[in-house]
Amino acid sequence: MADHASPRLPGTVCRGAEGAPLVCDASVALTPTPASTRQTPSRPLVAYAYSCGVSFPSLEQLRTLNPQQQPTYPDAAAVDGVVGQLRSRPPLVFAGECDELRGKLANVAEGRSFLLQGGDCAETFAGVTAQNVKNKLQVLLAMSVVLTYAGQVPVVKVGRIAGQYAKPRSKDTETRDGVTLPSFRGDAVNGFDFTEAARVPDPARLLDVYNASAATLNLTRAFVTGGFADLRSIHSWNATFVRSAGVVERYERLAEEIERAMAFMVACGIEDESMRTVDFYSSHEALLLDYEQAMTRIDSRSQLPYNTSGHFIWIGERTRQLTGAHVELLRSVRNPIGVKLGPTATGEDALAIADRLDPDREPGRITFITRMGAGRVRENLPRVIEEVEASGRKPVWVCDPMHGNTFEAANGYKTRAFSQIVDEINGFFDVHDRLGSWPGGVHIELTGDDVTECVGGVNELTEADLENRYETACDPRLNRNQSLELAFTVAERLTDGRINRINPVQEFTPVEF
Ligand SMILES: O=C[C@H](O)[C@H](O)COP(=O)(O)O
Ligand SMILES: C=C(OP(=O)(O)O)C(=O)O
Ligand SMILES: [Mn+2]
Q: Where are the extended beta strands (E) located within 43-146?
């Protein structure tokens, strides 16, 4: 791979004697390490030994790559001060956890399990409350139980949580009643209020992102290991669902069946830790380079770089330029990486990105999150899958049925129709079924609250209902009933014709007497 032999760029970060990140001195930077003195890491590690012993790009280097969707801060020195502080903060996630998730995603890529990824479009600092986090976990756990039991697949659970505070925007400015101000770019960047003062980007918010992520992750870890995720509390996860809907009764029937199955297992002497806790991982879009680069660290055990701001990080549709700063930073870290692919993405684009981010084709390393829109998925997705899989690659294929289906309602609210979301998911399954590839997961913008942001679904929300509880800071999310309903729909598609392939009971040949 040519990259590994390329000279170091001035200002890049490399490892010091103790493995601490150092910034290369420009005078030595252009001298490649002599081959004889280079360590020869084992094959899978080679891809991550970024540019001849350099471990990850410096902020200075990234800034030369014309990074997209970055805030224009009024005070550059203040940014440097914040970045310095972030660098001294402890990691939010550990390298071993990221490796574990990569291993689980490798199973997804192989068609042995399914990824459920979901959470807010934009987390907010005000949303860091026990109730809000608990509601979100409840809906994700209930969905994963539906998928596991009705769909009969192991489910890898990843929240859009504990770091999802920055938003790329279609337009730099927003105009209301003749007043034009900078767009809101998430709590990580500026304020939501439509005032000049609020919309000025403030780098100190990056420290708030760190604190909010740490608090959310701490609570999440406590919830998922401290008894809350115990399968025996399966009934309590629907405590906050809105009763009126048939989908809740459906969930309750399923919960009763699971309880009976568990009682049977316990009676047989099978009682296992996996009934009491769940593995749950954090994820967000790695958008703000100041934050993401500052949170990138050399793991002391492997001596390789990891982004320690979240287990799984993804590159958005607007920042996936092949030679852009986001790809450059993320290709240097070991975490599992997602890449959004919108309706204009071609197989060639996907392949080029995969080659850049995952030259060694490591299982579970790369996830393509396709978001083509209900009207285009059946036409555009096949070519992308065909070209990527023809190369021998097996990425995780995930459907984001949200971002290609956004529209403005007659009353001005940005919304999405439940029927179109389901239609894109059906298109995704249809295409994969036809091509024989594995529809590996779904990526959903949702909330555990009873909001009115997407129309349709079991409660038949109309555009007129949107104003009742439209609470999102950015895109419209499925509310908890809509989310649960979607889980049943996905479970049906998963079961369809696939159960023989993944259910080990079906593969068992009984002994004849
Ligand atoms: O979440 C995704 C994007 O940030 C969002 O869809 C952009 O919305 P906009 O088109 O209103 O800027
Ligand atoms: C910005 C997002 O999506 P996309 O990059 O696909 O537009 C998102 O997932 O919030
Ligand atoms: Mn969004």
A: 54-56, 114-119
